[in-house]
Amino acid sequence: MTDYVGRVMRPIAARWFGGGVGLLVGLWGATACNLITGASDLEVSDDAGEGGGSESASGSGAGETGPSGSGPSGSGPSGSGSTGSGVTCGDATCSPGEDCLTCAADCGACAATCGDATCQPDETCVSCPQDCGTCPAMCGNAVCEAGEDCASCAADCGACPPTCGNATCDAGEDCMSCPGDCGMCGPSCGDGMCNGAEDCSTCASDCGACPTCGGAGDATTPLDAEEQAFLGIINTYRAQNGLGALAACTSLNRAAQGHSEDMRDNNYFSHTGLNGSTPWDRSCDACYELGCGPQTAMAENIAAGNSGAQATFDQWKNSPGHNANMLGSSFTMIGIGRATGGGQYGSYWTNVFGGATEPSCN
Question: What's the mean pLDDT in 250-258?
């Protein structure tokens, strides 16, 4: 059989260093693609229906974060008449900022025991601010909020139980109904503050919604049996060559799997996505933040035609560009994605290599 060999040179992107892309096409029906930093070689060779490709780059950069802050707050004085905060004594509502001293007409007379320097169970910040302290600004809005309890705001949280104050957290008492016996309440979801034990996944109302990551979905991102086998094969190969093992990175798995699925579903084979994305764009979009730029050494291998891990590994091992990426000393992380059951080649593989771990890898 006569072979046709063509060489095509083209630039990749401004972030690439040197070289161009070599394109090697055979007539035996297989496809392989390889790009490496420096002299980037894109090899396409047909060999028993197999294909592969690799791409690598390094770079650095950092994004910018805009300033954050909050505006000032304030409230007007309490008393009879309209106040600066809109509180009006005599409107039949014991509003925040009012109590028995400042507005008995709305909040009622102070408790009979008020003034003995002890906040009795039947006293609150409303009925006896001298003993129980001034009510928080939000007391009186009919919502028992963080920072309020039966002692500081009975109007919102209810009166403390009769047994409150006996130094024992009895049945029916808790941090809200009797903080003196049960202790102060800790941070809680819904109090408007993203506290140390909360995050976007456990309390979106306080911490905001978690960012949406691109790439593959949760069902196909975890490594399947063949992908796990490939991880073992490549790490054995690296050990034989005096190199450290690569760790699977969730965000890079997401990027790799997503690209394999996209090539299969849309029947193409390229490091460049149909939307024009580069491997680093896809890694960044999959929440691997070091891929945004990129800010660490990165590379990508792609292959098509073999569903098994060993055959795909052998395919890449026998191609200098792919092999160089698999033995890259700058890489510590890997993303592995395999998609089968569609496209011209039936099976599509993607490896994405990263130079450092980050929280998204876990």
Answer: 98
